Amino acid sequence: MASLNETSAFYKGSDASLFWEMTICQSLSDRASPYMGALREAFTFGELLMARLYDSISLGSKPHIIEVGGGYGTLMRSILPLLPTCKVTMVELSPRFADLQRRVLSGFPLGEVIEGDIFEVLRREHLEASLLISNENIGDFPTAEGLRADEISRIVEKGVFDDSVEGRAARLISRYNLHMPDDNDPFAFNLGALEYVELLKGRAETVFLSEHSADIELGSPWSDFLTPTATGRPRRISLKGHAEYSIRFGDLESAALADGWQVERFPMLELLKVRDDAGARFMAGTECVGNERSEIIHEFLNHVKEYECLILKR
Ligand SMILES: C[S@@+](CC[C@H](N)C(=O)[O-])C[C@H]1O[C@@H](n2cnc3c(N)ncnc32)[C@H](O)[C@@H]1O
Structural domain of residue 290, as residue ranges? Predict the structure, then answer.
């Protein structure tokens, strides 16, 4: 029998932030951060993200940006000064993070925080934006665990999809022609992340998504010295107080293409312009015990190598 891994109770709890692991955005929140040593040039995550987005899109003079699950509000703190005429809507499940985000937006009259689950908010409200950012949170969305290919195939053949975990997964697998494992071992499926991509149609001109990838394939120069642990299928990652899943970006890409988006898919290493010189290659491969700076860079490179990004354009 399949089940759902859900993190909403964790995030709604009052102390989610105490158990929260450091994200890439948080690690690169300040140009003085020691993690900057892994980058070719010291820029915050927000600055690097906006520079990468501007390579692909233009935002116009009065854009509306929606950020989903903005945690401490660090990304907005970094990009709002670059976009003073921008309207900002934050959608945040955790009451504590929502409060922190209200503080970040307090000097900006065109900013609001909607406290709630993004799935309910998108179904309830007619939100439409120039840009929607969902950074490091789609792995938190409900994931189906314990599916079996023969059972899903039977549902797909019948073509009747109910609201059970199997029915929801089978509908998406059928609609987007997604690949299931060749054997009949139980598998995990990014149900929430795929339903999210489906819901985003018509909600933004551009969408940015990033998360720990299940199926990243690095190219040169990164593949010369970094090897991700990608297993091909979503992998459970146990964290303090909750668990999340890595994302099969190939499935999200197929769904977005079928929904009419233009898709750009690239590793986080590229967005961050991570170093690939001899020093970085050495530190990536060696734990450098006793040298704190090198240990920090070692840890960061071997974390960031797992992450992928999608830009969806209308
Ligand atoms: C891992 S944190 C990432 C925070 C931030 N984006 C960053 O990169 O530092 C996940 C964030 O998503 C929020 N979140 C998780 N599920 C959500 C949902 N269904 N709707 C809205 N926010 C959600 C959490 O409360 C938290 O702020």
Answer: 11-140+191-313
Is the C-beta atom of 94 inside 6 A of ligand 1? yes
Q: Is the CB of 68 under 6 A from ligand 1?
A: yes
Is 114 in contact with 91 (CB distance < 8 Å)?
A: yes
Q: Is residue 6 part of a domain?
A: no
| Ligand 1 proximity of 142 Cβ (cutoff 6 Å) | no
Q: Is 53 in the pocket of ligand 1 (CB under 6 A)?
A: no
The pLDDT tens digits of the residues spanning 80-130 come to: 998 888 999 999 999 999 999 999 999 888 999 999 999 999 999 999 999
Inside any domain, residue 172: no
Does the C-beta of 161 come closer than 6 Å to ligand 1? no
208-266: pLDDT as tens digits:
999 999 999 999 999 999 999 988 999 999 988 889 999 999 999 999 999 999 999 99
Q: Give the distance (Å) from ligand 1 centre to CA of residue 201.
A: 20
Instruction: Say how many Å lie between the CA of residue 68 and the centre of ligand 1.
Output: 7
Residue 233 maps to which CATH number? Answer: 3.40.50.150
93 Cβ below 6 A of ligand 1: yes
Question: Residue 136 C-alpha to ligand 1 middle, in angstroms?
Answer: 7
Residue nearest to atom 13 of ligand 1 (CA): 69
Q: Could you give the number of structural domains in the chain?
A: 1
